From TrEMBL:
InterPro entries linked: ADF-H/Gelsolin-like_dom_sf
Organism: Clydaea vesicula
SUPFAM superfamilies, A to Z: Actin depolymerizing proteins (SSF55753)
UniProt protein name: Uncharacterized protein
Lineage top rank: taxon: Eukaryota
Xref: Gene3D superfamilies: Severin
Length: 63
C-alpha cells in the first residue's frame, strides 16, 4: 500500500517563485529538481538552476 509524501515548506515557496518566472531567453531554461527522502516520505528541493542551457543541465544531472 502506498503512502503520500509530505512536501517541505521551502519546496512550496520555491515552486511558487519558479512557476511565475518569466523566461529571459528562449535558449535558456529554469529548472527545479526535487527529490524524495524515502525514510521520511518527504519531498525536498535538490537543486535549482536559473538560465541554464540544456547541454549544461545534462552535465549537472547524475548518470
Amino acid at each position: 500500500m502506498s503512502q503520500p509524501c509530505n512536501i517541505d515548506s521551502s519546496v512550496l515557496e520555491s515552486f511558487k517563485k519558479f512557476r511565475f518566472k518569466k523566461l529571459q531567453d528562449d535558449t535558456k531554461l529554469d529548472c527545479l529538481i526535487l527529490k524524495i527522502v524515502a525514510d521520511k516520505l518527504l519531498v525536498v528541493k535538490d537543486s535549482e538552476f536559473d538560465g541554464i542551457s540544456l547541454d549544461d543541465l545534462k552535465e549537472e544531472l547524475p548518470g
